[in-house]
């Protein structure tokens, strides 16, 4: 296996063309990483806009189509990235969807569709990078969870379960890789000003903002900052941790 190169580490970001994912890609590139944004091939217009947006990075950020819910597809994608660019040193799992509805109206499709992306997707990607990372004695994995995984949210039994699961998964994997130079952490955003939250009805959004001690929604850059911190080469003693970035919306220790 080729050894990784600390000066130009390869970072894969799933959901990489999304509201938060795009910002993470740009900040990782600013930190000198070679970034691959993985997202659904079906998002044609957004893919073009993303390519335009990151063109100033002169090739340091590339787009690769991929569906995180497809186990075999994730394997082929990672093999392709490792062959053509280099070993995966950093993995940020930011792909996510919502399928909100109260449990009494939730059908199995709402449940399974969400689990396949938000939870299976994390397994599918980690499963294919972890062996290489441990063999090379370096890896940084950050999985995007959510404040709603910590508190639960009305209409989100599926989402809250998946996001709580993401942290359980991360703690368990952190134990398995701790002696091999691979850290695994979660970042739990609060409510951020992204398309996902723009879809929440106006009056509910205003109530949410009123309940945030900092007095505003989070920004993708607030979240990217935490990801950059946890993926730094010298962040080697933080593993199995959850870093909440929620403007004080939910405080605990
Ligand atoms: N926006 C928020 O307020 C907020 C709060 C808490 C947690 N989060 C989490 O942060 C992450 C990023 O959220 P966002 O606000 O950028 O959402 P977003 O909808 O803007 O981006 C999510 C991205 O995931 C991609 N995606 C969906 N299914 C996929 C699949 N099967 N394979 C590959 N890519 C897929 C989408 O195409 C999209 O680009 C998500 O995991 C989300 O659950 C967001």
From TrEMBL:
E.C. code: 1.1.1.36
Enzyme class: oxidoreductase
PROSITE patterns: ADH_SHORT
Domain Ketoreductase as annotated: residue spans: 9-190
SMART domains: PKS_KR
UniProt keyword terms in alphabetical order: Oxidoreductase
Cross-referenced InterPro entries: Acetoacetyl-CoA_reductase, KR_dom, NAD(P)-bd_dom_sf, Sc_DH/Rdtase_CS, SDR, SDR_fam
GO molecular function terms attached to this record: acetoacetyl-CoA reductase activity
SUPFAM superfamilies: NAD(P)-binding Rossmann-fold domains
UniProt key word Membrane: no
One Pfam family linked to the record: adh_short_C2
Annotated PANTHER family: 3-OXOACYL-(ACYL-CARRIER-PROTEIN) REDUCTASE, 3-OXOACYL-[ACYL-CARRIER-PROTEIN] REDUCTASE FABG
Family: Belongs to the short-chain dehydrogenases/reductases (SDR) family.
Protein name, per record: Acetoacetyl-CoA reductase
Gene responsible for this protein: phbB
